[in-house]
Amino acid sequence: MQPIIALDFPALEDATAFVRRFDLHQPLFVKVGMELFYASGPQIISALRAVRPLNIFLDLKLHDIPHTVERAAYQLGRLGIQLTTVHAAGGQQMIAAAKRGLLAGAADAGLPPARLLAITHLTSSDQAMLTTELQIDVPIASAVQHLAAVAQAAGADGVVASAQELPLIRAVTAPDFLVVTPGIRPADAAVGDQVRVVTPAEAARLGSSAIVVGRPITQASDPLAAYRQINQEWSTAHV
Length: 239
Description:
Layout (H helix, E strand, L loop, with lengths): L3 E3 L5 H8 L9 E4 L1 H7 L2 H9 L3 E8 L3 H12 L5 E5 L4 H18 L5 E5 L7 H6 L7 H14 L4 E3 L5 H7 L5 E4 L18 H7 L3 E4 L1 H4 L4 H15 L2
Parallel strand pairs: 1-2, 1-8, 2-3, 3-4, 4-5, 5-6, 6-7, 7-8
Helix pairs in contact: 1-3, 4-5, 9-11
């Protein structure tokens, strides 16, 4: 799976202008997050696909009572997206409800179902925040591993986690369980608000299924060159 570009833009026009810069024959996988989806609504999915063929990771991090999540996931399933997310902290019943909703929505729309990823702990989180604010008294890597096991038991197709936790996740999940890793920064890039970060090559060597990269590409002086460099580093190291 090629690197997923996080379209961290405030408006539909910015996002469509960005994807238009890429060659139509180049496979492209993009992430639509909360800012862009809330600004543009569901039409962002069809608007992006009107510009060029691409795969879409819709990252809305659903987290509510199981019934509400199931009905929301049903609507997302009708959009023809490839990946979407719930918070693993919602528990097995909520994750299973999201999976049911996605499958039902896709079936009613006559589309392949999206794969469901459970968010473990955000890459902006660190041990101090986990301990002092959430009162979770286990190492963050152990907490992530546990949530990955919970997500798999509930029927999720994978998790979103820092690549730093990949070996622990792989130890408790099936070989085809997806581990999608944000917090990716080239060696010379600014870390920003991320804490648990790795390079594209490190993520590949650790066994990431896919990497998500936003600002190092979208805010680069030459986004296409930045993407090519990251894709090359990822592809060379990923076996």
